[in-house]
Amino acid sequence: MQWYESEHGKYLSWLTEEDGYILSNGDLISADYYLTDKEGNLYRYDIENDSAIPIDGTLYNHAGMPTNAFDEDFAEYMEIRHTAKKKKRK
Predict the structure, then answer these.
(1) One digit per residue, pLDDT tens: the chain, 90 residues?
(2) CA-CA distance, 11 to 21, in Å (whole number)?
(3) Which of 1, 20, 45, 79 is most solvent-facing, going by the fewest CB within 10 Å?
(4) Residue 56 lies in a domain
(5) 51 in a structural domain
(6) Host domain of residue 56
(7) From start to end of 1-90, where are the E strands?
(8) Total domains, the chain
(9) Is the dihedral of CA 74, 75, 77, 79 positive or negative?
(10) Is the pTM of this model over 0.90?
C-alpha cells in the first residue's frame, strides 16, 4: 500500500476495548473510539469535525504492557486537528 500523509492528516486505525486501555494524565481510559498511528501516537475522535485530535497517553494491553495496536490492513486516512494549548493567565 502506498502511504499518503500530509500536514493535514495521516493514516490511523481505530482502537477497541480488546486492544487494551489508555493511560493519559493519570486517568485510565477505555481504548474504544480512540485511534493510533503507525508510530503509536494516540488520537481522540471528534465526531463534530470528523477529525482526530492528538492526545498525550500510552496504550497498554490487558497484560499491562505498552503496545502499539496500529493495524495497517484497517487503517484509514483521517484529518488531524491540532488544538492550541491555552496559556495560563498570570
Answers:
(1) 444 556 678 999 999 999 999 999 999 999 998 999 999 999 999 999 899 999 999 999 999 999 999 999 999 999 998 875 544 444
(2) 21
(3) 1
(4) yes
(5) yes
(6) 9-79
(7) 9-14, 21-24, 27-30, 34-36, 42-46, 51-55, 58-60, 76-79
(8) 1
(9) positive
(10) no
